[in-house]
Amino acid sequence: MQFANTIDFAERETFFVEVVLPLSLAINYTYRVPFELNDRIAIGKRVVVQFGKHKIYTALVKSIGKQPAELYEAKYIIDVVDDFPVITEKQFQFWDWITSYYLANEGDVMAAALPTGLKLASETILVLRDELPTELVLTEKESLIVDVLHKQQRISIDNVIELLGQKTVYPIVNSLIAKEVIYIAEEVIEKYKPLLKTFLKLNSFYRDEENLKELFSVLERAPKQLDALLAYLKLSKNDVFVAKQQILEDSGCGQGAIKSLIDKSIFEQEKRQVSRLGHADDEFEINFELSKAQQTAFDEVDLQFKEKDVVLLHGVTASGKTQLYIKLIEKAIEDGGQVLFLLPEIALTTQIVHRIKRYFGEKIGVYHSKFNDNERVEIWNRVLNETYQVVLGARSAVFLPFANLKLIVVDEEHESSYKQHDPAPRYQARDASIVLAHLHQAKVVLGSATPSLESYYNAKTNKYGLVELNERFGGVELPLQEVVSIAEETKRKKMSSYFTSVLLDDMTTALENNEQIILFQNRRGYATILICATCGYAPKCVNCDVSLTFHKTSGKLHCHYCGYHQSSLNICPACGSVHIEQKGFGTERIEEELSLLFPEVSIARLDLDSTRTKNGMQQIIADFQDKKNQILIGTQMVAKGLDFDNVSLIGVINADTLLNYPDFRAFERSYQLLSQVAGRAGRRDKQGKVCIQAYDDNHRIIKQVIASDYHQMYLDEMAERKQFNYPPFSRLIFVNVKHKDANVLNVASLYLANALKSQLGARVLGPEQPLVARIRNYYIKQIIIKIEKNAAIQKVKMVLKDTIKDFNSQKDFKSVITQIDVDPN
Q1: CATH assignment of 730-822?
Q2: Domain locations in the chain?
């Protein structure tokens, strides 16, 4: 692979480098290159630099020049970490766009983009001085630290925290420094460690048949060693190295036998770096035929690509969009390019990953947060050296170092999980992927059965190409959909727990036919709220302005915002009453009630609580796929990309919880989620059924879901958006202002809002309290900037950035946190 921007440093010239530090800094800093590192420096390499008095960080070289910093004396870089650049020039261009568009700092982008394993950590090390003061008075805790240092010579701050059993150790450390007992050393620690395995090979002396026979006779007195030798000979092909672990497993001998054979020079050993990543077991094959409708759509996409860089593929659920993606990926690979396949949440799309791996085998890599640091570094390197031609990833995969990107597929492009909320940069991966494709001169396919209104608007106004696929693959009919009034069923006393008589009858029929059922309830936990029937007291989170949710599995009350939990209530702490009632219900409660109604039926639950382990999600999905469970209850996770051939019934327990959310996108999101959930039914050779339970059974959105009328939903929503000047007819920027003191926050947010209004006028709304006004002990106020579509957006952003910079410099507001969210979801 070619690495550009390496400088010829034959002469002893003085060079300066602009570096990006993994810190939220407004500017990049300039460092001086020592002469001895001149020939090793290159754009995209990591360098070790000191920032501040003691801290050492890994920074990335962004540019190289001969101009020193104007306002400060540049420090020297300490070392160069890499032999080859880990960041490409196009990545830096992409980072610049992210920084500019989303008003983030480049250090935030670096922190988000690089795997943790590629970011070196500076660990503060305490070292005992050789000569200690003669008259020395130490406290008990100081003496404890010094005693350990006498034995170990050096320990880290983390070790001190563990030793003393407290987090506030810095005053003690500072005291020891002041008493000249210790000093600080900074050690840079490389986090990425390759996985090494031991391989064994028979000494060449024993290749001779006579020598090998003699060896057998010698080892007859050491049967375990003989077993190990025989296992090696069985596993070895053409005198190659064999993994030590394989020999141990095949022979049943212990580590001691192997060690003896190595000590006797019978085995030669070698440590090799091996991949932590699994290998695809399925054969490489692309042998399916597209249906007539799919082939027409494929040809249309190909034709649109001649004029447009972005094409929106609007295909109903189960229309076979994945097969179209595979053919498009195959074409890009044949042209020698790389492909990025973005999925909304990689853990939820196990089936798609498996299906695509079947076709592309070892050419494909998967990148998401469930991988550990070392695995993510390996994937990064494989993309950089083009070992992987196809990468399946969640939103962070847009930051991978593609060398020859030709195609980006964004599946379920409407999904809100493509938006990064915290920390900065708060980017939208779908929008960012379009810019990334432009930098690489690549094409983009946005796919969805229920496209976001913004994307569909862009297609309808000819900014994107549009291809529609309106029939299910194999001629399977769309599911029969029915809405049932909870209010009417309650009035007629036909409700059983949370289930209408219609849903229960449908479930009974499906179970009798040995078919599977998915039930959707967009609340996890057991009871949404506990409330005292006597005085109305409801337990709230100590850190946030939200009620605690009762989880029966843990027996505790949980906050879904900050993770705080406490024991459940039996007695009201306000009035002493024992009449504590449970209001609302989540997936846990549905699971319990169902097990009472259908005691012989195996039931599984798919939500955040049941999928916390690395492979928890995959196991639940695999068990349901293998028909080990007949009913699957889940939150919105069940709506995303799952494909089960035996599911005939989908039940929506309460659609009203989606429709009544106070957000201008609530109806759009409700339509998308209900349609996606409904799309899981009857995806093979039989028409499925969807039963939607709701109080407001005449709601416009529910009727449009029942009729599968996306176009009418689009027209209705766009008329409303235009009337109230919401996206896509305007752009939104949210400014969240936070502080632990509500009074300080009120003053600060009003000051900032007025400062913005003085320059941007009526575009600025607020400050107002958001739906949840306190999270993690921080009170929140929100300022909304609504910018007309034809305004110079970058000028508005510069005004916003400068105003916030002035605001942050005010002495009274230094402790106030401001967060900018461009294009909030």
Answers
A1: 3.30.70.600
A2: 15-120, 122-189, 204-265, 292-475, 480-523+586-719, 527-584, 730-822
pLDDT, one tens digit per residue, over 265-304 is 999 998 876 665 554 433 334 457 888 989 999 999 999 9
For 132, phi and psi rounded to 5 degrees? -100, 150
pLDDT tens by residue, 73-97 = 999 998 888 889 999 999 999 999 9
d(CA 331, CA 321): 16
What does the pLDDT average to over 89-117? 93
What topology is assigned to 15-120 in CATH? GIY-YIG endonuclease (3.40.1440)
The radius of gyration of the chain from alpha carbons, rounded to an integer in Å, stands at 31
Which of 77-86, 129-138, 187-196, 701-710 comes out lowest in average pLDDT? 187-196
pLDDT given for residue 241 in this prediction: 83
Positive/negative CA dihedral, 35, 36, 41, 47: negative
* pTM score, whole prediction: 0.79
- DSSP string of 140-187? HHHHHHHHHHHHHSEEEHHHHHHHHT-S--HHHHHHHHHTTSEEEEEE
Report the CATH superfamily, name and number, of domain 292-475.
Answer: P-loop containing nucleotide triphosphate hydrolases (3.40.50.300)
Question: Which token pair is 779?
Answer: 């009170």
The CATH architecture of the domain made up of 480-523+586-719 is 3-Layer(aba) Sandwich (3.40)
For the segment 157-166, the average pLDDT, to the nearest whole number, is: 83
pLDDT at residue 550 is higher than 80: yes
For residues 499 and 126, the model is more confident at 499
Q: How far apart (Å, rounded) are the C-alpha atoms in residues 456 and 453?
A: 5
Kindly tell me the burial class for residue 715, based on how many C-beta atoms sit within 10 Å of its own C-beta (0-12, 13-18, 19 or more).
Answer: exposed
- What is the spatial distance between Cα 682 and Cα 618, in angstroms, rounded to a whole number? 22
